[in-house]
Automatic annotation (TrEMBL):
The keyword GTP-binding is assigned to this record: no
Superkingdom of the source species: Eukaryota
Protein's UniProt name: Transmembrane protein
Transmembrane stretches, start-end: 12-36, 76-99, 111-132, 144-164, 169-188, 250-269
Organism: Chloropicon roscoffensis
Record's keyword terms, sorted: Membrane, Transmembrane, Transmembrane helix
Amino acid sequence: YLEHLVVASKWRIILGYVTAILLYASGPFATLWIPFDVFVLIQETYNTFSDEEKKESRTDSQKAIWTDTFPNSVAWTYSLLCLVLLMFIFGLVAVVCMYQMKRFEKYRTWIFYFTPAMYLLYMVYAGFRFAYNNQSYNTWFGPAGWVFVLIFFFASPLASLFFISLPPLVMFELMIVFVLVFLVIVPLCNPAGNLWNLIGEASNSSLNQIQDNASEVPAYVSAAFEAGLSNSPTEEDIRRVLTCYMTAPIILLCVLVVCVVVVSVIVDISNRQSF
């Protein structure tokens, strides 16, 4: 059956690799090359410090921001960045060779072994980066910025799993690893502390901002409150709404994880029927 599946899934697997390469290259890869000069400057500045100044700067540095935690890591940071891209490219080349060359025809089922392995390696890499870089978007999104870092920066290449046709059990294992790494282990065990608690802090911060700008409520809203057409929301109501807004992306991510597994099962049933 696996031999039939690997042939029937040829273009889905190739499309998955191409999608992973494009998402990674246009997301994490390209994004980190933009501030390359800044990272080099940070490293050069850090290297001019005395040992005591280095220790003091590390103590005073912000938690879970890559350049603060690893200020002297430009070389190996960008080496790993390029290695991950090369890993996906070599995977695509290997898949194409296995499909095009007859000498590899009897080894095509190996695709179902090294493809999940590459995604697991990427999750290990992304999980490590996420643990020490989950606060980098706080300037724009506040304490809940780690949610956006996760979805748009680290999890985006994994969207290619929608296209790759892997056995359901393999896909289920990949999704379990994803949930454990990015939604359980790293959010609970990282230098910034419990990331889930930061959602509450973000809600409180937004609530304070709303209260500070209460005088800027549109006139028609104030008129509705005064006329009794609508009740003014309580602090608890506002906090509940803000929490829902901030957890909605995570809920959507979990729904997508379930969808990946369900789609994999449906495709597998269809393939078995055709087999």
